[in-house]
Amino acid sequence: MKLPQARLDVLRTDLEGEVVLYDPDRHQAHSLNRAALAIWNHCDGQNTVASLQRLVSDELGVPIEESAVRIGLQELERTHLLAQNFEEDDDRRLNRRAALKRAGRRLAVAALASPVIISALVPKPAAAVSF
User: Fold this and answer.
1) Which end of the chain is more exposed for a tag (fewer CB within 10 A), N or C?
2) Residue 4 in contact with residue 76, Cβ under 8 Å?
């Protein structure tokens, strides 16, 4: 089983309360909230989903559902912020709605701690010049 490994060749900019990662290969910028960043920071190729859940919960100071960590990993994979594809069974893949539904009574905490990545295409410098 391949464990999640964050890409190290992305550029990182810390802003107020969030971080922007720039992928120079795809010319895309990705804004990560605290939950998504905590997951990405601990993707060192050594941590399992269970250990990521524990580490992220400790870092954020709120309990994080395993399903939220899985969604975060899927988002990191979708945005090409992982160095390799994270192998996971298709039945273990979840969507955000299913994860929040499973959270039950802790809906507010789950929504707050849900990993969010917002992506934007960044034009090449030559394309940004207007005539």
Assistant:
1) C
2) yes
Asked whether the beta carbons of 122 and 36 are under 8 A apart, the reply is: no
Any domain includes 19:
yes
- What pTM, to 2 d.p., does this model score? 0.75
Residue 104 forms part of a structural domain: yes
Query: Can you name the residues that pair with 82 across neighbouring β-strands?
Result: 6
- The whole domain housing 117 covers 11-121
- Per-residue H/E/C for the chain: CCCCEECCCCEEEEECCEEEEEECCCCEEEEECHHHHHHHHCCECCCCHHHHHHHHHHHHCCCCCHHHHHHHHHHHHHCCCECCCCCCCHHHCCCHHHHHHHHHHHHHHHHHCCCCEEEEECCCHHHHCCC
Q: Is 44 exposed, middle or buried (0-12, 13-18, 19+ CB in 10 A)?
A: exposed
Look at residue 2 and tell me if it is in a domain. Answer: no
Total domain count for the chain? 1
CA distance 38 to 60: 8
